[in-house]
Amino acid sequence: LGASIDLQEAAHLSIEKEKPVTLDLQGFSLKAASGQYLFQIQQDASLAVQDSAGGGQLVGNGNTVVQVKGGTFTLENGIITGGNSNNRGGGVELYDSSGGWYNTFIMKNGAIRGNQAVGQGGGVYAGMRSTFTMSGGVIENCSAMQGGGVSVTGMFDGNGSGVFAVTGSAR
């Protein structure tokens, strides 16, 4: 980014499977339109967010900030904040999949801070067939009825439960 951007239209940025996308926030903020996801990552698509200057943010505005629906999201650096879901995953939602696709969220560094969900996973919700790997960074000041920081769920009916793995300097 070369400047902070505040989306005004009732739409979200959809990442589709054509090519992997890498976004460098460069210290700037990207804010969702009111009531919308900021990013929705579709099946077989991938988005990597980095912040080479520090202080860059992905900012919610009345909904989940990033929804992963069959793709891969990598947070290399930057802050996810301001998400407010009326259901699951205020900061990041790895959407429940009973179909043949899987969700992946890799958090290498950065922060998920100040997000909330009415139901589960104020910071991160990892649904069925989802993997959340956190090797660095911090999740803090998030709230939800279940799993203020992280909520992992799944069904024991062969569809596969969500997975949450913490390694390295993650906290």
Spatial extent as radius of gyration? 14 Å
The order of strands across the largest sheet is 1-4-7-10-14-18
Low-confidence regions: none
Strand count: 20
Give the overall silhouette. globular
Please give the largest β-sheet: 6 strands, parallel
N to C succession of SSEs: EEEEEEEEEEEEEEEEEEEE
- Bin the strand percentage: 35-45%
Helix content: under 10%
Query: Which structural class is indicated by helix and strand composition?
Result: mainly beta
Subunit organisation of the chains: single chain
Distance between the termini: 28 Å
Count of runs of 4 or more consecutive helical residues: 0
Mean pLDDT: 89
Describe the model.
By secondary structure, the chain is mainly beta. The chain has strands spanning 5-6, 13-15, 21-24, 29-31, 39-41, 46-50, 57-59, 66-68, 72-75, 79-81, 84-85, 92-94, 103-107, 111-113, 116-117, 124-126, 130-134, 138-140, 150-152, 163-166. The mean pLDDT is 89.
